[in-house]
């Protein structure tokens, strides 16, 4: 069997990619100020900023506050807990395939746009002059 030297890009091996793989799950986030946020992970970015829906925020002392939307700044996160039934390797692999598919689709659309601009497909070149490229009869 032939061995390949294919490597996963560094961006796809980051902790933020793992957190993005948890989108849609109910998670618990421990914050640096000892507060605890709970909710469904709606979105995450490269800075580990999180958006939770159906959330609650429990400060160290005091009552929990329920809210429909909670933004958690990545720098304030201490720990992220996720359900024990979740298989992290499976979720990450699915997320990596989604990212790869999106990259391929983007590159394909860029390639198609470049071909249209060059006129490779037999179509007119895209220019700012609407009269350009039109055949004239004399």
Topology:
Blueprint: H1 15-20, E1 26-31, E2 36-44, E3 50-58, E4 65-72, E5 77-81, H2 88-118
Antiparallel strand pairs: 1-2, 1-5, 2-3, 3-4
Number of DSSP-assigned strands? 5
Strand order of the largest sheet: 4-3-2-1-5
Helix content: 25-40%
Beginning-to-end CA distance, first to last residue: 67 Å
Tally of structural domains: 1
How many whole angstroms does the radius of gyration measure?
24 Å
**Shape, per Cα inertia axes:** elongated
Which percent band covers the strand fraction? 25-35%
Total of helices:
2
**CATH fold naming:** SH3 type barrels
GO biological process, one term: mRNA 3'-end processing by stem-loop binding and cleavage
Protein name: Sm domain-containing protein
GO cellular component, one term: cytoplasmic U snRNP body
GO molecular function, one term: histone pre-mRNA DCP binding
Question: What would you say this structure looks like, in words?
Answer:
Residues 105-138 are annotated as: Disordered. InterPro entries: LSM_dom_sf, Sm_dom_euk/arc, U7_snRNA_Sm-like. Residues 107-116 have a biased composition (Polar residues). This is Sm domain-containing protein. It contains two helices and five strands, in the order H-E-E-E-E-E-H. The protein has one domain (12-116): SH3 type barrels (Roll). The chain has a five-stranded antiparallel β-sheet. With 138 residues, it is an alpha+beta fold. The mean pLDDT is 80. Helices cover 27% and strands 27% of the residues. The protein is elongated, with a radius of gyration of 24 Å. Strand 2 (36-44) and strand 3 (50-58) form a beta hairpin. The chain has helices spanning 15-20, 88-118, and strands at 26-31, 36-44, 50-58, 65-72, 77-81.
